[in-house]
Amino acid sequence: MQDQSKGFRGRVKEFLKSSSLTEEIVGYQTQIQGVCSKLKLMAIVETNFKVNEIHAIVTAPSFAMVKAVQNINNCPPPSRIFQGRQAILDKMHQFFATDSGNQHIYVLYGLGGAGKTQIALKFIEQSSFSNVFLVDTSKVETIDTGLKGIAVSKSVGNSAQDALMWLQSSDDKWLLFFDNSDDPKINLNDFLPRCNHGNIIITSRNPELRSYGAHTLVSDMEEADAITLLLKRANKESSEENLKLATGIVKELCYLPLAIIQAGAFISKSEDLKGYLALYHSNRARLLSEKAAQSHDDYAQTVFTTWQISFNQLSYLAATLLQLCSFLHYTGISEDMFSTASKYEPWSWSPPREELQEPLEFLSHFVQPTGEWNSLKFLDVTNEIKAYSLISFDAKVRLVSIHPLVHAWSRSTLLDETPLQSCMSSILGMCIIEIPDNERELASVQLIPHLVLLKSVNCDGVADFRRAFWEIYYHTGKFKDAQAIAEQVLEKSKFLFGDEHPHTLSAMGILATAYYKLGELQKAKELEVLVLEKRTKLLGEDHPYTLLAMGNLAGTYSTLGELQKAMELKVLVLEKHTKLLGEDHPDTLWAMENLARTYYTLEELQKAMELEVLVLEKRTKILGEDHPDTLWATENLARTYYGLEEFQKAEELEVPVLEKRRKLLAVDHPDTLRAMVNLAGTHYTLGDLNKALSLQVELLQKRRQLLGDKHPDTILAMKNLVKTYQKLGKQEEMEELEQLIEDTKRLL
Residue span of the signal peptide, if any (predicted)? Predict the structure, then answer.
């Protein structure tokens, strides 16, 4: 029944409001007269009409009236502080403006909190569709409700099917906005109008929805837009100081819109832009979970809660994989790491399988009954996580990457980090053990970011893979870390096995190697002499471990200038390797190369060159041009050519060595830096001073960063650069660097 309490005037106002009359009615005299007639009729029968009878009068046929009712837009406006995204908006406008003769569907997909809905709302605000219908597609129930609402609003029925039928038959320029199409279990195709006209925008976290039409990945904001958004939400002016502070904040928040808005809301309340970053570092989870009291849009979730909703939909296996990956670096997470670990067979010094129940149990989900790795299963699990944009997975190279903020959040889903941290530490260690020797150096470059972040080399009470982790630190030139681990391994080995056990001697050997790389040659020599004595006594002179110890000590003798001792040992090692292993064996080639180095040091360059040419030929044939051992042989031969004053030949070898090392290894890897030294020296000698200068400046920067000003290699880099400055007539730069050298020497 009608509500009699409002009075006739009030009900007339309600009628006018509900009829959605627009200015378009003005000027249509006959239609206005018709409306007045209906109002008079309402006055006469007001006490008797039911609501549906009034509705029948209101919707009486009239072109202007019908046109007014059809102009529906149930979308809220975009946020008042909407910022940027112009490239995406331009792309959308161009797409919908094109008359293709087909239905226009545009998908905005990406991580929760990236701003997909706001971009769609901004586009709608800028457009002129006759009807815009917003449908919440997060659940089947909300889709059904939304479509029913369209049917009712158009007076074509009260079911979802009625709405779809109307959309299919309507010639109006309508737009259907399917928001939050995140559930991968919902087949959105069931709810799309079956026609060749109309316009649809879909927002989703699921990248699989790209198949519906044109699409854009909505990711992080441009820095300038992110800064403006932060300052707007924080109610701060764009002063020079505020811009600088805001730059640091948005960078820390990885330019994610929702995180920036939350930060701005907090700053607006606290009035402390300067202190926000320090507070954020110590309270990240709380700040990214806290909803502002005053919001500029209807989004009800915070950064962390929006991801938690997605996380709660994951299976146990998918959730565990995501949590394990949170202990690794957020990029370059390789499927190979897990598949290689699944093949783990213990070495004499590595943990037995009995100590690795948790990692082995997790990996078993991806292993077939035959023992083969099940890549399809791994792909299924990663696709499950990817469906919510919590990770990206490149199926071609089998690499997982995670948004840095998601990476930080995923660890917050754990009440106790220790079990899964230990599990991931063990998986990494198991992987390292199974990497073939000839792939270890390149694999180390890929694994070192994960090991650095994991920081699990000192886990007591869990499987101990420190010896394996030493390999990664050593091969990536992090010799101080390698030394620290080797000292721990040696101490533990002495305690468990005694001074003469093979594990203890191996630990002494790796510690000596670290000392050698750090320039602590006397310490290296003392340990290597001890190892050689004990191995000769326990294993005999021809044992591979004894020959290894012999070769290491010979190298240290060479560096210390004890060349006769070095020569005697190296000749002996080469003879035994050739006899026991053959001329093409990798150990024989190393022995040959080591002897060539001693010839070089003794200035017997022709002998050195003959051996080095042979080594390079064999390694190129056996290992290929890009293998680290081949590059090492190339570098040594180039050095000998330089010594023989065949500078052009040296340069021809050194240029590709540096190019390949930059590509295959890190820019600050010791081997890359050494290649820079060599090529810069050759450029200088050939008179290519600008080329030499460019390399020397870069080299000095890296040396200072990695070794500090006092290290001999840093001082040598300074001296070489001084010479080049002098040759180029750069007096001011030369004097400044000379002063730095003098200041550094006084501190030594």
Answer: none
| Candidate from 404-418, 580-594, 642-656 with smallest mean pLDDT | 404-418
Q: How confident is the model at residue 204 (pLDDT cuts 50, 70, 90)?
A: very high
Higher pLDDT: 240 or 458? It is 240
pLDDT of residue 357: 92
- C-alpha 43/C-alpha 144 separation (Å) is 38
Please tell me which of 4-13, 321-330, 448-457 the model is most confident about, judged by mean pLDDT.
321-330
DSSP state of 188: G
Nearest to 195 by CA among 164, 228, 230: 164
The candidate with the shortest Cα–Cα distance to 443, out of 587, 334, 347, is 334
Nearest to 340 by CA among 417, 486, 447, 458: 447
**287: helix, strand or coil:** helix
pTM exceeding the 0.70 threshold for the entire prediction:
no
Structure tokens at 435: 């990497």
Q: What is the dihedral of CA 721, 722, 725, 729, to 10 degrees?
A: -170
Share of the chain above pLDDT 70, in %: 87
**Cβ pair 569, 554 in contact under 8 A:** yes
Report the DSSP pairing between strands 131-136 and 333-334.
Answer: unpaired
DSSP string, 675-709: HHHHHHHHHHHTT-HHHHHHHHHHHHHHHHHHH-T
Task: Give dist(CA 270, CA 247) in Å, integer.
Answer: 19
Give the Cα separation of 180 and 204 in Å (integer). Answer: 5
Q: Give the separation between CA 313 and CA 738, rounded to whole angstroms.
A: 63
Angle separating helix axes 7-18 and 51-58, nearest 10 degrees: 50
Phi, psi dihedral angles at 435 (to 5 degrees): -75, 130
List the structure tokens of 638: 């180039």
**pLDDT band with cut points at 50, 70 and 90 for residue 73:** low
Three-class secondary structure of residue 534 per DSSP: helix
Measured between alpha carbons, how far is residue 699 from residues 662, 678, 684, 717, 734 in Å? 13, 11, 14, 7, 16
How far apart are the C-alpha atoms of 123 and 214, rounded to whole Å?
15
Tell me the pLDDT band of 584, cut-offs 50, 70 and 90. Answer: very high
Q: Which residues pair with 200 in a beta bridge?
A: 105, 176
- The tokens for 89 are 């908006």
Tell how strand 104-109 and strand 131-136 pair up.
unpaired
Query: How far is the C-alpha of 156 from the C-alpha of 178, rounded, in Å?
Result: 21
pLDDT on residue 2: 44
Sign of CA dihedral 257, 258, 262, 265: positive
Question: Which pair of structure tokens corresponds to residue 538?
Answer: 């326990």
CA end-to-end distance (rounded Å), the chain: 97
Q: Answer yes or no: is pLDDT of 47 > 70.
A: no
